[in-house]
Amino acid sequence: MDHSVQAAPTTPLSKINRAGLILAFLLGLLDATSPAFPTPEAEAGPPFAVVVLGAILGVITIVAAVVAWRTARRGAIRLAAGARIISAVLALPAFFVDVPPWLKASVGVFVVLTVATVVMMLAPQHQPQPVTD
């Protein structure tokens, strides 16, 4: 009797999906390294707890993006997208506090890039077309 577990069928990732996973991986790296550059005492910036949470989300993104790239599993793609969305939400308070304009602009670029990344990762994968004669 064969007790092996069958893997769920997957469809290949499209170029758009792969581009989104690359961007997610890079954003995850940015988040994961953020605790190495904490906000100086006299400057406005995110609390260290938010930076650490962002780093955790960055690591989750990196792992999920690598798994999604290797296996094309939709669950891994959704996990990476969810981590990116939460990371972007954590950055939104920068628009409502007194921080330098360059920081608000940076957060704006980060949020727009995150939205584009999530859309690209979650774009429908190409379904193989049946061969007809």
Amount of beta strand: under 5%
Q: How far apart lie the N and C ends?
A: 40 Å
The Cα radius of gyration reads: 18 Å
Overall 3D form? elongated
In percent, how helical is the residue content? 55-70%
Question: Structural class, from helix and strand content?
Answer: mainly alpha
Q: Kindly state the mean pLDDT as a whole number?
A: 87
Largest sheet: none
Uncertain residue segments? none
Per DSSP, the total helix count is: 4
Could you state the order of secondary-structure elements as H and E?
HHHH
Task: Report what the structure shows.
This protein has 133 residues and is mainly alpha-helical. The protein has helices at residues 15-32, 48-71, 74-91, 101-122. Helix 1 runs antiparallel to helix 2 (48-71), helix 1 runs antiparallel to helix 4 (101-122) and helix 2 (48-71) runs antiparallel to helix 3. The mean pLDDT is 87.
Gist?
The chain has 133 residues and is an all-alpha fold. The chain contains four helices and no strands. The chain has one domain (15-36, 46-122).
Characteristics:
133 residues, mainly alpha
What topology does this entry show?
Elements: H1 15-32, H2 48-71, H3 74-91, H4 101-122
